[in-house]
Amino acid sequence: MSRSIVIHGHYYQPPREDPWLEEIERQPTAAPFHDWNARIESECYRAVVAARVLGTGGKIARVINALAYTSFNVGPTLLAWLEREAPATYGAILEADRLSAARLKGHGNAIAQAFHHTILPLASRRDKTTEVRWGIADFRRRFGREPEGMWLPETAVDDETLDVLAAEGIRFTILAPNQVVTAPARGMPGLYQTTNGREIALFIYDGPMSHGIAFGGLLGDARVWIARLLAGIADGGSPELLSAASDGETYGHHHRFGEMALAAVIDAMERDPRVHLENFASFLAKHPAVTPVTLVSPSSWSCVHGVERWRANCGDGATSNNPSQAWRAPLRNGMEKLADGLHAIFTREGAAFFSDPWAARDAYGSADFTARTENLSVRARELLELERNALRLFSSCAWFFDDIDRLEPLQIMRYAARAIELAGPEGVSLEANLLDTLAGARGNDPRSGTARDIYLRKAKPKHPPFASVAAAHALARLNGVDAAGLHVRSADVDIDSDRVLVRERRTGREHVFEVRTVSTGADSDGALRRALHAAVEVRALDGGAGLATGEARSADEASDAAATKSLRLSVPDLPDTERDAIVGEVRRGIFDRGLTDADRARLASGVALADVVPEALVRAVDTLATDRGDAAVARVLDLADLAEEMEIAIPYDAQTTFARVRGELAGAPMLLASIAQRLGFAAPERPAPRALTPA
Ligand SMILES: [Zn+2]
To answer: How far is CA 678 from CA 636, 653, 658, in A?
Structure first.
């Protein structure tokens, strides 16, 4: 055996969670999925861990977990999402590492990643260290072993970054060919010695093959890729390594069915005795790095100018629609100044709680954030959260794309707003300074304004963020919905008559709200409409936490701030997870009243709701001929509302039946009017169209 093959996938998504609620709001561009994580999980991650190898006649010959055969890293923030939202896929990722370790003498396929996808050469040594320590701790907790290698976000590297990796016990990382002056021959690992005298191995991936994967040229036909992997192979030659690296989302998301090409390659390589499909750690164990390499520093795999893409208008990432990235520099300057201010608060206030605040910050990432901090005071926990948000300000995705008015820059501005809130009274001046700098970050579309406008318009909460949580619980109670379905991950809620207590889980901070019912929705008929029309007024009793500052606001926003002293909210105003939970529960109530056991049995057997509802509606209308009780009427109204909401046309037969039975309802004109209107009949003041009236 002379040729080893390592195919590495870097799996990562920009973080998307609301910084207060820790939930991802619905992202309409990801439809029919709830959000982009869900969509990419379905297209890529789920496909990669169960990739189809096709046999004769295009039928499935094998289903393989491709991660058990390929080197991989999954960003810690994405792993956290997968763990709670896609547990089967998450389990398969962990299993892939166990299977590969068993196959490759204890060297698993997974490697760690610096925690927040920060461009490490642009970070201070202290931040580099924290990102690397958090990445290692997260890896250890999930995979149950020490990581041997670490993926650098955007493969961005400089001497200090490698020194930190080596100091933390990382043995290798992976770089692009342009990041070293001369790559060692035959794909062998290079030996890098840092200025401080530490050593780390560098694997330089094959540029053309990686490019062919990333841009799809090799994914369209696995035979081309296989031929490329076997090209020039010689029996008995010197050991050599052919390695490739790309974004993991290449498989299935960027290139539909790309995971099938990967599976076909894995299948072929496994059968070919001339090659050994393994990972970097297992190769390094047999072939230690000896050839010295010189770094091109700083450098990365996605900016030919070094790391300018994340701080300057270097031209990378420009598109014809959005040619200028002059916004990058002020966005970074603003975030750096803000982080300096946050660190100063952390150092000063943290001294009262921690013997070494920075060691406390490093340790904070070693668990699930809340577990190890429950014994600390609220302020100490807030300070750790302040630092977590300070680190998150530098998620590289914010600078990567072509314009400022996108979700990724907005996301770090939301972290900024959260950090400013946690800063306390000094948040006012921190925010004012940030806004001064962001005012210089102008997007390509004049309608977007500057980053300052975007921050004030979209990033900064318009009302105390937990007010909606309080309102959701009050509205759930109003609609008879079990509050257990309203799972806000970030807070615990106690509701007691007109008071709602919301306790943040990470910090223990409590927010008390007074809630008053403004409308029960009882004036609208149909359970769904009642639920949507019910409204409560919420008033923060703890001084409006979440509205730290005032000076930088425009007159409009100042009046918004005044309005938040008492906020009117109904179900459609809620964050979508809570809105969906309440609407879902109300719907379930409709099913319970509107659908018979036979209907439910049909649903359970796979008949679509869109088929069951119209039939149930026809029967419900028919029942009115003999039963005009409240329950029978409510059933018709609920089912009609449900049909409307599901965009199901009112069944022709339901209208015909109604035309037949409406005479029976003449004694109850209001009832008649509501039902007639729902089923598509004209207002009853006018005579019904003759054609629809039975003879
Ligand atoms: Zn560049």
So the answer is: 9, 14, 11
Q: How far is the CA of 317 from the centre of ligand 1 (A)?
A: 8
Quote the ligand 1 centre to 316 CA distance (angstroms).
4
CA 303 to centroid of ligand 1, rounded, Å: 4
Q: Which residues of the chain have pLDDT under 50?
A: 544-563, 688, 690, 692-695
The pLDDT score that the predictor gives to residue 523 is 72
Cα gap 648→651, rounded to integer Å: 8
Listed by start position, the domains of the chain span 3-302, 328-459, 465-586, 597-678
d(CA 347, CA 514): 36
Q: Choose among 114, 124, 294: nearest CA to 194.
A: 294
Q: How many angstroms separate the alpha carbon of residue 235 from the centre of ligand 1?
A: 42
- Taking a 5 Å cut-off on Cβ, the residues next to ion ligand 1 are 303, 305, 308-309, 314, 316
What 8-state DSSP symbol labels residue 42? I
Distance from C-alpha of 170 to C-alpha of 150, rounded to nearest angstrom? 7
In sequence order, what are the residues at sequence separation of 6 or more whose Cβ sits closer than 8 angstroms to the Cβ of residue 463? 546, 547, 560, 563, 564, 567
16 CA to centre of ligand 1 in angstroms: 25
Task: Determine the distance separating the centroid of ligand 1 and the alpha carbon of 332, expressed in angstroms.
Answer: 15
Q: Read out DSSP for 422-453?
A: HHGGGHHHHHHHHHHHHTT-B-SSGGG-BHHH
CA 443 to centroid of ligand 1, rounded, Å: 18
Q: Which helix (H) or strand (E) holds 575?
A: none
pLDDT of residue 544: 45
Going from the C-alpha of 223 to that of each of 67, 210, 229, 240, 269, the distances in angstroms are 20, 16, 10, 22, 11
Q: Ligand 1 mean position to 308 CA, how many Å?
A: 5
The reported pLDDT for the residue numbered 550 is: 38
Residue 627: its pLDDT value, please? 86
CATH number of 3-302: 3.20.110.10
pLDDT value of residue 464: 85
Distance CA 506, CA 600 (A): 41
β-strands 60-64, 71-74 pairing: unpaired
Phi/psi of residue 293, nearest 5 degrees: -125, 150
Q: Nearest-CA neighbor of 460 among 558, 382, 357, 576?
A: 558
Is the CB of residue 593 less than 8 Å from the CB of residue 534?
Answer: no
d(CA 586, CA 593): 11
Distance 112 CA to ligand 1 centre (A): 26
Rounded to the nearest whole angstrom, what is the distance from the C-alpha of residue 563 to the centroid of ligand 1?
45
Residues 39, 44, 48: CA angle, nearest 5 degrees: 150
Q: Which residues contact 72 (CB under 8 A, 6 or more apart)?
A: 8, 9, 10, 11, 93, 96, 109, 110, 111, 248
Q: Is there a contact between 276 and 5 (Cβ–Cβ < 8 Å)?
A: yes
Give the integer Cα–Cα distance in Å for 77 and 66.
Answer: 21
Element spanning 353, H or E: none
Residue 79 has phi, psi (to 5 degrees) of -60, -40
DSSP string, 519-535: E-STTS-SHHHHHHH-E
Q: How far is the CA of 163 from the centre of ligand 1 (A)?
A: 24
**Can you name the residues that pair with 537 across neighbouring β-strands?**
516, 568
Contact 421, 546 (CB under 8 A): yes
